[in-house]
Model the fold of this input.
Amino acid sequence: MSDTLYLLKQALASEGKTPLPLFEEAHFAHELQPTERLALAKLYIKQAEKQAHNEELLLATLRRVEWLVGEEPQMLCKIAKLLYEAHSVDNHLLFSALDYLRVAEKKDPEQFNSHHLSGQVLLRLGKQLNQTDYLESALDHFKKVEKKEASLHWNWGEAWTLLGTLSLEQNDFKQALEHFAEAQTLGCKELYFALDYVWAIYEYCQHLGEPALLEVGIELIQSYIEVSEEDVSDAWVWYFRLLKCRYDLTHTEEAFEEAERVCREAILAAPDQVELWLDWGELYLSAGWLHADPKRIELALDKLTASKISECDPIQVSALLGEGIAMLGVFLEDLSLIQQGSGRIRTALELAPEDLWLREAEAFCQLALALYYSEGRECMRAVARFENLVEAEPASLKGLHGLFRAYMAWGMVEQSPPLLEKGLKAIGRLSSLRPASYKLLCEWGVALLEREELEKGKEHRLALVEEAVIRFNQANDLVDSSLELTFHLGKAFLRLGQIQDNPAHFEEAMDLLGTVYAVNSIAGHPLALAHAQLGELIEHPDHLYQAIELLQPLAQAHPEDASLWDDLGFTQLALSELIFDPLHSEESESRRIEAEKNLLQAVELGSLEANYHLACLYSLAGYPDQAMTYLGRAETLDCLPHSDFLEHDHWLDPLRQNSDFQNFVSMRKEEERW
Done:
């Protein structure tokens, strides 16, 4: 017997306590019995278990095992397990493990019992290569495992989650959550299990747009942070991500404040998690843009220029910084800031021209230019950029929101209903992806009211405003209270009252707007209009007096606002007619004089509607020439009401017998016919 073989047999006899020597297989290829070869292979397996840190030694040892056992299925599975456990970033060990497992299964498919391991290998390959084929194969193997243990359900849930992120199928995420819940029931308590579980919850809620399940993840991650003795820095990151996700889904102030608070705590508890600074800046940037709050954008820029940011992905940092600077330029009406933000993005795009973050930022910078200049050409360019984003990624939330804002800006600049309709389509799609966002529903309602401003037909106008009321009420159902929503709902009822001449709508508008006015004077103007138009409709002067009391200080506080002077003059004119007493005409005459002065001020400031109101005033005052002059101006400026209205407006009754007026109305009818 050779010395080498003697040492091997001695090692076998001592059950592996004697170190295994190096050997040349050819020296004893035919001298070991099958049982000895198998026993020796097992010893080498034990040795390989200690060599996972050294790939070269590990592979050398496993080659000896393979030489000893050939295609013995159980030993091939043990080789595969060691390769799986030893793999790091490089996938070649995983592919080798998969090859061994496939040979083992093919060799003895009836007795093959390593389906869990096969699934784990395929799961890791699918994760690292982003390929659904591997993930689907992993799921097939998990199904074949006879004993459904907690760790199996954990891997099963992870596979379904990864598949869901690639397929975007709701059912995939549901399957994942079912398996994670089962793993938890069966006793999974590891921190990394909790992190995988909350990751699945996060992805599901992002995809579905519903925040309710986030509470499960938040409670789970809180429990680990409170009691775990392990490093919980990753848990803090996910804690903040879940809360930021809740804000992104609901856009409520409460959700923002809690996410902001937890981010501060997370930065203190996990100072090495530098990505928290990036997410913190993005949180403020999103809130600042959505709520038109330049202060929050400034705070976002503070976060994005902190020293820790230098350790973050420079492309993402450049994108958010450029976008934030341009946004701030919009709200401060500072072109230099918009140009500075755009320049930063252009520079970054030279290094990464296809990066999605930068392309989104580039589109927002173009939108900033469009909003600053209020030019159709700039709006068109913004729309084109956002259209490209949405075409590449149909569910892009930033892309859809930017597309909505760009189309609405373009539509208002061009006074184009078709462009506004495209904006409404975009916000409708976005709201369907984020059904829990009261803010998006509010924006949808406001957009419908803007669309109504350009509509001529009464029935279509009514339908648009009624839909706006529906959107505002849906938004109200999602929040406890919101002055913003109350304000817009009040304005919608004001529009309904104007369209239908319905006192009940005006009264509803007054109730809603009065609630807001008690806190914020922004509601003063529409509240005054509701009083004025209700007072005229039901011929009740008290409402007109109330409207004037509201409008006078507003006009004085905003002397350049033409619409305030026009509405004040119109209301005073209406009051002068309503309180006219032939025996005591002093107050009526005084009101008419004030009305004339205020309407002339409105015309000088650029109000178009004031020309028609002056025509009515001069008609009532018995000055037909001046009345016809302002009717002509109103026609030239395209702000005359329809000829049917002209024929029935009682303020023009004194002109009915005037031949110039009769010819004027006849010509208007002819033009409208064509």
